[in-house]
Amino acid sequence: MSSASTEAGAHAQRAPALLARELTRRFTPKDRPVVTALDAVSLAAYHGELTALVGPDGAGKTTLLRLAAGLIAPDGGSLAVLGVDVARDPQQVQDRISYMPQRFGLYEDLSVLENLELYADLHGVSAEQRAQRYPALFEMTALGPFRTRLAGQLSGGMKQKLGLACTLVRQPELLLLDEPTVGVDPLSRRELWEIVQHLVDDQGLTVLMSTAYLDEAERCSRSIVLYQGTVLTQGPPAEVAGGSAGACFLATPPPGQSARSVQAQLLDRPDVVDAVPDGGRVRVVTRGAHGEAAAQPLRGLSAEPVAARYEDGFMQLLQQRVSRERTQPLTIARPLSADSGQLAVRVQRLVKRFGAFVAVDHINFEVRRGEIFGVLGPNGAGKTTTFRMLCGLLAPSGGELYVAGANVRTAPAAARQRLGYVAQKFSLYGPLTVLENLEFFASAYGLRGEAKRARIAWALQQFELGDRAAAVSAQLPGGYKQRLAMAAALLHEPEILFLDEPTSGTDPLARRVFWRRITGLAEQGVTIIITTHFMQEAEYCDHVAIMDGGRVLAQGSPAEIRRRGQSAATPDPRMEDAFIAIVEEARAAAGRDAQAVA
Amino acid sequence: MFESLFRIVALTRKELLAVLKDRRARLSLLIPPMVQALIFGYAATYDLNRVPYALLDEDQSAASRELVAGLDGSGTFQRVADLRSAAQIAPAIDSGRALLVMDIRQDFQRQLLAGQQPDVQLIADGRNSNTAGTAMGYVSGIIGNFNAQWRADHGQPAPPMQLIERAWFNPNLETRWYMIPGMIGTLTLIQCMMLTVMSVAREREEGTFDQLLVTPFRPHEIMVGKALPSMIVGTIQATGVLVIAQLWFRIPFAGHYWVLYAGLLLFLLAAVGMGLLLSSIAGTMQQAMLYSMLFIMPFSLLSGFTTPINSMPGGLQQFTLINPLRFAIDITRRVYLQGAGLNLLLPDLWPLALMAAITLTAATWVYRYRPQ
């Protein structure tokens, strides 16, 4: 952690664009104890820099951004933005900054251009300024060809770009972004990132953005790590990574053991800070100091030291504060006929057309029982359509579809009893309590009497929902909602579990707990089919299919997929690099075909 | 079969929980129909009283005073002005001060005594045609009484024919007796249809419908599970209006309760069926709301609730045949005031049953085959 004096030295020539001293903000929810969202934090972001705000859910990131935008007032301390005390003169600050909240208020029934015009009107941007600004914004966001399209019909990534363009209709001095890349696929995420980087590097804009992606924080000039309303550290990202230097290893599982089970064993050790699967091996961060002691937990495994990344240091930082509750892996009461090798899902020449549009174009894949199968792809690739067909929500236009041994087209009710489904968005009943939701879904799956009581007790215990059983579901924090959705989908002990972007918008800690549960389920023979935008998470899968434009572009183990991304520029590609390489290559090929036909 | 029943009960219970959990939602389902029943009970009446009229008595005789006394003593009319000349008639009507002007000519008494037929002119404000017509009817009744009285007093023979009026089922022809039973159906329809339409559209919009569809629920089970809660709420609302009609307005109930509830159940089934069909077509809550308003308004206006169906143009009369409210109002009025039994209500019951069968089947079909 850097001391205040070296910080002042490093930024002697630059004035802080945002300076918080002992800033405190509390919330008093109805019928619940006071929440201290920010507890006397002192922090700074500097002119002309890109500063990242990272930390788990409930760290206070959004509260800080809302305070800086003058939308709420602090309970204590001071916050100066562009030299102005926000609490005293929020209007002056608002005239000079732009703020893009997590859910930006786009009008879905207006076109791209109309949305832009609306925000220009709201900010009183003159006609000459517009004439000068719009071409630049359209070029930057590549939304020019879509200016007449309705905002509601844009993909998630394009919506975010439009939101960004709307916040930039006038030239702000400071840009505040609240998780702009959440729920956006890797390609769009990279584009958004390039836009932000361009604004900072070429236009000298000052940007403060919160993010759940630690690799984004790594690329900022400065990062601030928040945890439960306090600052864990702030400074150049390299300092965070440096915190775990010498404690990072890449371990190879012994023959006969999967990377996933080695990873799970390591994660359960108290002297291991973090363990994630990484291309068939396991990336481990240990608690020990440099040298011999650091490698202690890895005895018996062949491991090589590797350079520390931001994420490693971040986990190390959090570890010092959080006594990590050792998540118990899920146990399924019913022994599944774990005859591994049996097919759980078979998809052959599956097609789905909406009018002239082919959403899913002759795809094939097979998933064995007890496997974790990941479906990756940009927004609009056909992932969700495929999912909906697998779950029987949508009738295929052609092809064969076997789920849990049944043909979903002919025996949907029987097949449904054997599958669980967690939608992308929280889709249990908001007005009902946790318990009422569980009771309803238990009954829906034919559970009653003692069996029902036992399963609900199991769900409350396994997903740590017991203390919130009487809480209204709509008012639960995000992490609880996600666990409740999982619990409801597992009440009837399904053989196959479908998860549509279950980790979107959750923090790195919650994601690790989530995957510990999922891998536990898979070990007991439950088949998991999952989509995700976090490419690192694909590492937990046994097999991965990459989709784009309704077709499966690549299939294989995570290590195989990564090898396909190898090039001179990236000799050791990460999952994300491979994904982008595969999708871009396929798109280029499609473009060549189109040209050849023409 | 048993499994299916069990699932339906679970869904019904969940729906009722979602609707009735919140105290405000609970009250908003029960209080408005009751309050509306009370307000309409007082406000919606064709019975006139305190009709403002102006008098131009050019005769100023004993006979003219006797005629005017009949008017003033009726309790229905209130004299607001005594005019001096015919020139004052137009301003009295134009300003809206008087709804009627009665003009008694100069030799009114002389002609009467001479056995001639004097004219009495009655001018009404036709801008308010309904009230004017009713008021003129009252006046001609009063004139009739005057004539009969005059003949008797002056030893003239009685008129050759006499009409004796008896209004069955509503002896005093009170509008309230006619309106309030009709309200049982009208008030229930609005809330019941809204509740049904929104319950499905909300699930679709919030994504919970997918979660419901991946469970072993079959489409018809979802239909029944969605229809039952609305029907339960509708029955409670109808009961509330019924209680007000009897305990507050003291309108005697002539029929059998089981007949009324049997008719109401069929009506609710048809209304809920329409609601479900609309909601299966609508994609969002907003659409669902608009679609249902598209039906609720014409259904209420063209139901015979306020204006008789017989006097509507032929095409519109045909349209009322697909309006469940038309049959429901007929049922409630006839059971309530007339005490009609099921056999007499058959012409109302079978169209409702047919409507329910068609809409519920269609809704189930659309659910199953709707593309998204």
How do the helices and strands line up, and which of them pair or pack?
The complex is a heterodimer of chains A (598) and B (372).
Chain A: H1 4-10, E1 16-27, E2 35-46, E3 50-54, H2 61-68, E4 76-81, E5 84-85, H3 90-96, E6 97-100, H4 112-122, H5 127-141, H6 156-167, E7 174-178, H7 186-203, E8 206-210, H8 214-218, E9 222-227, E10 230-235, H9 237-242, E11 248-252, H10 259-267, E12 272-278, E13 281-286, H11 292-295, E14 302-305, H12 310-321, E15 343-354, E16 357-368, E17 372-376, H13 383-390, E18 398-403, E19 406-407, H14 412-417, E20 419-422, H15 434-444, H16 449-462, H17 478-490, E21 496-500, H18 508-523, E22 527-531, E23 543-548, E24 551-556, H19 558-564, H20 575-597
Helix pairs in contact in A: 4-6, 15-16, 15-17, 19-20
Chain B: H1 2-20, H2 23-43, E1 51-57, H3 62-72, E2 77-82, H4 89-94, E3 100-104, H5 108-113, E4 120-124, H6 129-153, H7 175-206, H8 208-213, H9 219-248, H10 257-281, H11 285-301, H12 314-319, H13 324-338, H14 342-369
Parallel strand pairs in B: 1-2, 1-3
Antiparallel strand pairs in B: 3-4
Brief synopsis:
The complex is a heterodimer of chains A (598) and B (372). Chain A has 598 residues and is of the alpha/beta class.
